[in-house]
Amino acid sequence: MATPLAIRAFEAEARVYRRVWRGSVVSTFLNPILFLLAMGVGLGTLVDANVPQGLEGVPYLTFLAPGLLAATAMQTGAGEGSYKVMAGIRWVKTYHARLATPLEVPSLVLGHILWSAARVLMVSVIYAVVIAAFRVGPLWQTLLAVGPAVLTGTAMAAATTAYTSRLKSETGLPFLFRFVVIPMFLFSGAFFPISQLPSGLQWFAYVTPLFHGVELCRAIVVGTTPHVAAWISVGYLSAMAVVGTVLCIGPFARRLKP
Q1: Helices (DSSP H) in the chain: which residue ranges?
Q2: Nearest 5 degrees, angle CA 131-CA 127-CA 28?
Q3: What DSSP string describes 78-97?
Q4: Residues ≥6 apart with Cβ < 8 Å to 145
Q5: Using one digit for the tens of pLDDT, what is the confidence trace for 24-59?
Q6: DSSP state of 55
Q7: What is the pLDDT of residues 81-122, one digit of tens each?
Q8: What is the rounded CA–CA span in Å between residue 137 and residue 133?
Q9: Residue 64's beta-bridge partner residues?
Q10: Residue 84 belongs to what domain range?
Q11: Residues 75/149, Cβ–Cβ less than 8 Å
């Protein structure tokens, strides 16, 4: 449950974003359009011509769109939990300033995770509207898929924040994106069924949060049958978000102590 002080930490993030939102609005609107045009329409034309039955029985654009919704949410969560956290702890030290108020570390962490979820929500709603504009599915149906997308992004934000808060320098962040975020983006079922992967990589996909987010979003938007029961995916992502948040508190307290 969000405490009043955590809401204050959330408010601080919102006040900052109110002044800088123009820097992200173009990419937030443009990225889903470009991805769906290039991959869904452009590449999708070739895929549909060579796979008449479609992927999992649907055209490639229909298969791809909900996967990209979950993938974008995951990337947004990773962004909120990486360089921004490093700036707050080490570079700009905004977290030190906030702890000079009555705010305490648990409330600071919870406020950060809540704001990360809000940012993921903003991006996901925009992506869902774009998906509906491409006539992949009805607007109400794509908006329902925002729920698992936000859960995926929040889980990723919590886990990434826990990782970043333990880093002594920023050199570990490129490693995170090159060897965790990008492979997850490519091999978690967003672009093609994981059944096309070697068995070893299939197990990698199963343990990633993005796979579970893709399965949930695709089941809602397209109506496909998930490879994993929905309650397992929801439980997995929820546990990751909660455990990741708890794991942030100790490192934050050590790094931000006066």
Answers
A1: 4-20, 22-35, 44-50, 60-80, 83-86, 94-99, 105-133, 139-144, 146-164, 172-176, 182-187, 199-206, 209-221, 230-256
A2: 140
A3: HHHTTHHHHIIIIIS-HHHH
A4: 66, 69, 128, 216, 217, 220, 221
A5: 877 777 888 888 999 889 988 899 888 878 788 889
A6: B
A7: 999 999 999 999 999 999 999 999 999 999 999 999 999 999
A8: 9
A9: none
A10: 4-256
A11: no
User: What 3-state class would DSSP assign to 165?
Assistant: coil
Q: pLDDT tens across 198-249, in order?
A: 887 888 899 999 999 999 999 999 988 898 999 999 999 999 999 999 999 9
Residue type, 90: R
Dihedrals φ, ψ of 189, to 5°? 95, 5
CA distance 97 to 221: 43
Domain count, the chain: 1
Residue at 64: amino acid letter:
L
* Amino acid sitting at position 196: Q
The pTM of the full predicted model, rounded to 2 decimals, is 0.94
